[in-house]
Amino acid sequence: MPKIIAVANLKGGVGKTTIALNLAAALAARRKAQVGVVDLDLQKSAMRWARQGDGEALGFQVAFLGAGAGAMKFKATLDQAIKQSRADILVFDTPPQLADPTMLAALTADFVLIPVGPSPLDLWAAQEAVDLVEQARRERDDGLPLMALVPSRLKNGTVLARELPEQLSAMGPVSPPIHDRVAVVESAVLGRTVATYAAGSLCHQEFEELGRYVLARLKEVG
Fold this sequence. Notes:
Blueprint: E1 3-7, H1 16-31, E2 35-39, H2 45-51, E3 61-64, H3 71-84, E4 89-93, H4 99-108, E5 111-116, H5 120-140, E6 146-151, H6 159-169, H7 182-189, H8 194-197, H9 202-218
Helix pairs in contact: 1-9, 3-4, 4-5
C-alpha cells in the first residue's frame, strides 16, 4: 500500500495545489520513488496544471477523482484507487469547503499537510482543518494521520511572514515555509514544477526542504 499525504484546508487560495504538485516532484526526485498525485477537487486545478505541459513535464502521473458523487460512493472509489495504485507515495490535492471529502481523505491518509496563508482568515480556517484532522485521528484510533501546518504564500520581508510560523506552532507541528514566488506561477503556465523550471532557485530549495521534512515525518508511520 502506498503512503498517502493529503494536502488539505477548508479554505481556498492557500496554495494546496502548488504544494501538492511541487511536493510530489521533490519526493520523486529525493527518494527515487514512484509518486502520484490524485486531484480530488472538482475544479481540477492539478489536472489543468498537468495538461499545460507535454504529458512528461511533471515527471509523475496526475489522476482526477471527483469528490461530488456522495460520501459513501466517493470513499469506495477512493479506496479502490489506492488499492490499484502502483505508486509508493500518493499525494491528495483536496477540495476547499467540502468537509466530507476532506474528512474521508484524512481518514485514509498517513500524513495531512495544512497550508496556511498569512492572514487572519487563513488562521481561522486552519483551526477548522486541525479540528477535522483530530476528529479523523479519534475515529481511526491508530494515531494517524500525522499532521503539520505549512506556512504558505508568504511575502518576503513582511511582519506576517515572520510571525506566522510562531502563531501556527500553537496549533500543532509546523513544516518549513513556502514563500510566494513568481517561479511557481511561471512553472504552472508551462505545466511544470519548479524542480525543472527553476532548478536550484530559492523556490526549488524550499520545496526540497519540505520534501525532506515530510519524508522524515513519514518514518514515524513505519
